[in-house]
Fold:
Amino acid sequence: MNTALKTEEALMFAACLFAFTFLGMNWWWFIGCILLPDVGMLGYVHSNKTGAWTYNLLHHKGIAILVGLAGYLMANNWLVFAGLILFAHASMDRMFGYGLKYEKGFSFTHLGELGKDHS
Structure:
């Protein structure tokens, strides 16, 4: 994946870390929850189609923004936190080349096929 795209994702991840400091929560919450969106991979136990749908649901930045915005509008720090975790996790994954999934299989993403060098 292009270095510029990886840098962009790293900066978005850093922005999430910065935003988290305003929630007044302990850092172990962030550290302990950053990998939770990967539960979406469990859909692959059923089928590639279900797996792609559940994975993409928890890795879509638009959904992360909606969850965080809903939390902000309702003055609910836990929803803001959930939105930040979803967004930060998606950015972290994309830094490593893991994009949104196609129904063809886990390795087929909007960033290219996993395991293939697309520099």
